[in-house]
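> example.struct
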């Protein structure tokens, strides 16, 4: 008999991250016997009927849950979101053309770096001057750029675009860490890409959701592996896709659909974020690191006013079964990642620990 872990852990890991318990149970079962087939999901051909059905269902769920236009296509590749940074300019920047980027964090910086290798790249907005603790606003995207790329949620620094920039050119977005966490109008995007391991599944799969009509216009000769159109034309089976990660993404998206989809998860994510940020604002011992209006609902970053108290605080949250809230080395302090599968109850436990600590040390 398979059971999920018995020890109650409140998992705030920034990625790979928490997934719903039902997903772990079903995934574990499929490793032993996929759907009563007598085969493990790990030993099945990706060209078998059952896996083709898994791929088709996962692609359909991505579009259904996000309300994507019918003609949009979905492919799942390896390489992580970081491979996406390389593929974006190759697929969208014309030979001799140029791209516009917003630089709002570590991942955006890497995206810019990759684009510069492909051609002219203009950073039209940046928050680097303040260690990326805010979202730049009111910037202009040039009409003659081939595309505009931005990062919807800055996982490391804890900021999030609350309104998406209006752009005169096709928009490409790295949504790795907030895809499926809130509504988006997919038709406004030429391409949404992201690693699965932050909000839609395990590490190993990278999702690309795009308007196929905007591909194949760059005049570049591409390796078939770098060519999104090739992958789309081959139903995401040009080469062996990440079979097991795609299956786990399917399970996670089925879970999301079963609880009420993006509208329901948006409510839950808002409630979790409000609970934690109100504690950060109420307790003088803790300070949020980002501009209040740009606070991420997924990754809440905060520091202690007195860093000498950190070891004592660390002891207390670890004792409460909390995992993974140490901040990224480039920000320090703490980062609580509240992805879709994190229950409100886990945030209540963290807030109780913060309050208890504040009472003792305030
Ligand atoms: C984690 C992350 C990445 C990098 O993802 P990999 O899959 O490790 O390449 C890129 N962008 C964002 C917003 C991320 O959170």
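> example.seq
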């Amino acid at each position: 008999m398979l059971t999920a872990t018995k020890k109650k852990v409140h998992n705030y890991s920034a990625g790979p991250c928490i997934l719903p318990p039902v997903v772990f149970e079903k995934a574990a079962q499929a490793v032993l016997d996929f759907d009563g087939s007598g085969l493990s999901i790990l030993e099945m051909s990706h060209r078998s009927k059952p896996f083709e059905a898994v791929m088709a269902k996962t692609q359909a769920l991505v579009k259904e849950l996000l309300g994507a236009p019918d003609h949009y296509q979905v492919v799942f590749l390896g390489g992580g979101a970081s491979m996406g940074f390389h593929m974006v300019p190759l697929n969208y920047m014309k030979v001799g053309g140029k791209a516009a980027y917003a630089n709002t964090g570590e991942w955006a910086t890497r995206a810019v770096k990759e684009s510069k290798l492909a051609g002219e790249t203009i950073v039209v907005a940046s928050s680097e001057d303040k260690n990326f603790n805010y979202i730049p606003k009111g910037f202009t995207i040039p009409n003659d750029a081939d595309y505009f790329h931005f990062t919807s949620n800055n996982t490391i620094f804890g900021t999030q675009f609350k309104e998406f920039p209006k752009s005169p050119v096709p928009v490409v977005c790295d949504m790795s860490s907030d895809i499926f966490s809130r509504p988006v109008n997919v038709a406004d995007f030429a391409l949404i890409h992201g690693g699965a391991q932050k909000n839609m599944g395990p590490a190993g799969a990278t999702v690309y959701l795009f308007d196929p009509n905007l591909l194949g216009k760059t005049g570049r000769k591409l390796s078939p592996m770098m060519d999104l159109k090739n992958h789309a034309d081959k139903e995401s089976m040009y080469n062996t896709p990440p079979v097991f990660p795609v299956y786990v993404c399917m399970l996670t998206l089925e879970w999301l659909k079963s609880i009420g989809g993006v509208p329901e998860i948006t409510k839950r994510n808002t409630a979790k974020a409000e609970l934690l940020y109100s504690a950060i604002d109420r307790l003088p011992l803790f300070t949020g690191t980002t501009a209040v209006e740009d606070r991420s609902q997924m990754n809440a970053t905060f520091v202690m006013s007195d860093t000498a108290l950190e070891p004592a605080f660390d002891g207390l949250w670890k004792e409460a079964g909390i995992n993974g809230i140490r901040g990224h080395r480039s920000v320090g302090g703490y980062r609580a990642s509240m992805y879709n599968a994190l229950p409100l109850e886990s945030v209540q436990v963290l807030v109780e620990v913060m309050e208890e600590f504040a009472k003792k040390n305030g």
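> remarks
The first helix runs from residue 21 to 32.
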